[in-house]
Amino acid sequence: MSDSHEEHSGHFIIPLKFYVMTLVALLILTVITVLVAQIDLGPLNIYVAMGVAAIKATFVILFFMGMKWEEGFNILIFIGCTAFLGLFLAFILLDGFTRTGVYSNEDEIINIKSPVKIISDTDYHNSH
Amino acid sequence: MNIVKHKVAHHFANAHQEFSSAKLGMWLFLAQEVLFFSALFVAYAIFRALNPEMFIEAHHHLSWKMGALNTVVLIISSFTMVMSVRSAQLSRQRSTFWYLAATFFCALMFMVVKSFEYYEKITHGYLPSVWFSGEGTFENLHIFFGIYFTMTGLHGLHVLVGMGLIIWLMIKTVKGHFYADYFTPLENVGLYWHLVDLVWIFLFPLLYLIG
Q1: Residue A120: its chain B contacts at CB < 8 A?
Q2: What's B51's domain CATH number?
Q3: What's the CA gap between B110 and B95, in Å, rounded?
Q4: Tell me: the pLDDT tens digits for B139-160?
Q5: Which helix (H) or strand (E) holds A118?
Q6: Would residue B6 count as lying in a domain?
Q7: What pLDDT is recorded for position A28?
Q8: CB contacts, 8 Å: B68 with chain A
Q9: Is the predicted ipTM greater than 0.90, yes or no?
Q10: How far apart are CA B2 and CA B196, in angstroms?
Q11: What is the extent of the structural domain holding B181?
Q12: Whole-angstrom Cα distance, residue B82 to residue B97?
């Protein structure tokens, strides 16, 4: 970058190719995520969808947000934030996906009235 | 276009320190934003874990085509945003302005598509919580729409705030405030705009593309 004519007063200007490549990668990954969602992979679908979303997020953070060239302390803030987000989600998911039947009688106990007009499966499919 | 020279505020040693401080503040704000949205994603995870079939049923009420269109629109807007910052770094004020205008147009398009979607849900009575009056085969279908409207609504609010900020940046650009030595507001609004894009990158598969 020392001989670049695009450099001013110490601000590093990110080469254009990174932006264009990120744009193309994000568009391709969007197509992939939509296509994969049309195939029924059972419980795998959510992992594929989240995996693709994570790759897209990495592209946005590294290049569009310039994390690749960011100052150390700002990277630390971001990593800290992501770590706590992971911690939050991990414990909730551990809890949420491992308990079963706890809420089966809740409607009767709390007497919640559902606002949903219940229709049969056949009626539903006729009207949609 | 003319250039209005930026004066470094008196409590900073130099322009670089001023720029780094502003970015540090912005990153702290963005970290807070991620944690703020994380609570909503956790709510989504809990309710989906408890009602897996209902979620799959409910997402058929959303149009993945509209969601995909909005995803593409936001990705393009993120690209035009970085291009606008880059143009300012090269002191190209005219292209800074037009890239900002393109970003604003994409944001507007996102909101138009969103409002079509909302209109369709509202006319069918698929509103959150007690306002729900739609039909469905699951008695807790309204929970999905509570989550849908809260998450996309707060995200939409962020888009609207972003649109306001982009207008402000366009005015500042026309007045000649941004050039190679000073583009801090552009840079920071850009970071905010990418975060809005990031949130949508996760919202789209979670709400529209449930297997």
Answers
A1: 137
A2: 1.20.120.80
A3: 22
A4: 888 889 999 999 999 999 999 9
A5: strand A117-118
A6: no
A7: 97
A8: 30, 34
A9: yes
A10: 32
A11: 15-208
A12: 12
